[in-house]
Amino acid sequence: MKFISIPGAKPNAGHYSAATRKGDFLFISGQLPINPLTGEKCEGDIVAQTKQVFSNLDLVLEAAGTSKEEVMKVTVFISDISLWDRVNELYRQYFGDHKPARSIVPTKELHFGFQIELEAIAYVNVEE
Question: How, if at all, do strands 101-106 and 71-78 pair?
Fold first, then answer.
């Protein structure tokens, strides 16, 4: 198993990796709206938080040598299901024509009071 980290990122506060890769599969840890390079928490609304989460996802995918077009499964944790329409529109913009499998999990609370967290599974071509 290979442990993936984002180049230049602040060390994780917990005992985990940004992602792990085994063979062709990449398992991406839950991404909160925190800038991994600065450690700054996104204090904005659900739109700003969702954009930060997608930016973080891009950084992890790039560090692993893959891209959002190779994301196979996404799990979105959201603090209030009434926010879903706005998140879903940003999700559609982010992924475009690519439609990975997806689960939406409404939850009462997320770490640091955030409104969104996202984890994913992606494909990495190990022959490249």
Answer: parallel
